[in-house]
Amino acid sequence: MAAPHVIVIGAGSTGAATAHDLALRGLRVTVLERGEIANCTTGRNHCLLHSGGRYCVKDQESAIECIDENLILRRIMPDAMELNGGLFVALNEADLAFREKFIEGCEQCHIPYREVPVKRALEMEPFLNPGLLAAVQVPDGVFEPFRFCLAFLATARHNGAVVRTYTEVTELARAGQFITGVKVLDHRTGKTQEIGADLVVNATGPWAGRIAEMGGVEVPVAPTAGVMVTVDQRLCNLVINRMDKPADGDIVVPQRLTSIIGTTSWAILDPDQIEIPKAHIEKMIQKGRELIPAIQRRVTRGVGAAARPLIRKANTDEREVSRTFECFDHQRDGVDGFVTISGGKTTTARAMAEKAADVVCAKLGQRAECATRTTPLLSYRLFYN
Q: Residue 318 pLDDT more than 80?
C-alpha cells in the first residue's frame, strides 16, 4: 500500500522544513512554490539565527523556542551557518537599567550569556559606539536564507520528495468537506493541472490567510512588514543588538561583506504590495549609526521589506504580538484534509515543521516519530545535483 501523499504549499523555511520532516517519516511529499525557493519572506529577512535574547524579557515562549532550535540547527546544518555570536549593548542609562531584566530573562529562558567588559567589547567590535556602557554576549548567529531552505529540501528530495518551483496554487480541490488536492498554474509552461493529495499543508507564511480562504476557512495571520537597510561594508563580526525590548532599528546583522540594519514594524493588507516609506529608511540609518557610527559614512547597498506572518491577537500592537507559532487543523472549521502552519521565525522552522508533521501523521494514521532533531541535513549544494 502506497504511503499517503501530502502537498506542502510554500518553499520558504517552514515549507522546506515541513517537507523534510514528512519525507523523513516516509510520506510521499510534493512541495509547490509559486516562485523560486525562499523568494518571499524567508529570503528577505535579516538572516539572524536567534539566540532568543531579543524576546527573553517580553516574549519568553518565543525566546525558549529560539534558543532550543538555535542549538539544534547548529548540529544538523552547520555548513549553512555562521556561528559568530551576538552582543547586546547598552548605550545610555535606560539601556543600562534594562540590563538586569535582560540577564534575568536569559537565565529564565536558559539562554547562555556572559557579560563582556566594555574595553573587551570595543576590542571585539572596533566600530561599536565608543560611548558603550555595557555588553552581554549571547549565541546569536547568521544564516544565508536560500542555503537554509536548500539544505532542508535537498534532504527531503533525497528521501523522495518532489519540489516544483514556479508552480502557483490557484485553487484547492474539494469533495464535500474534504480538500482532495490543488489546482495549479505552471508559470514556465502556462499550463494548469490538478494534483491530488491525501492532505494539504498551507505553509505560506503571511499568505496563509489567502490560501485558507480558498478552502473556505480563516486563519488569524496578520501580515506585518518590516524595512531593512543594507550598507556596503561588514562593520561587525558579531550580531549587534540594542539592550532593550525589540524596537525599530535596534539590530545590525553582518551578512557576508555587508551589514543589515533592521527593522521597522507595521501592519499591511497585502504582502505582495509593500510600499517602503522613506521615513523608515531614514530611521534605520539613524538608529543603526547609534549602534555603529560608521554606518553614517557607508553607501546604502540595498533597501528591502519583508512581511512577517504574526498570529493575530485582538487589540495588540505589532511589536507586542508574540513571535511564537501555531498549527491549525481545519477539521475544527468543518474542512478536513487541510492544515495551516504559520507564525514563528526562520530559526524555529524545524520546530514548526515537527508540530505540523505530528498533526498530519495523526490525521493520516501514520505512527512514524519525528527524527529531525538529530538527523543531519545534506549540504545545500546537493539540491541541484
A: no
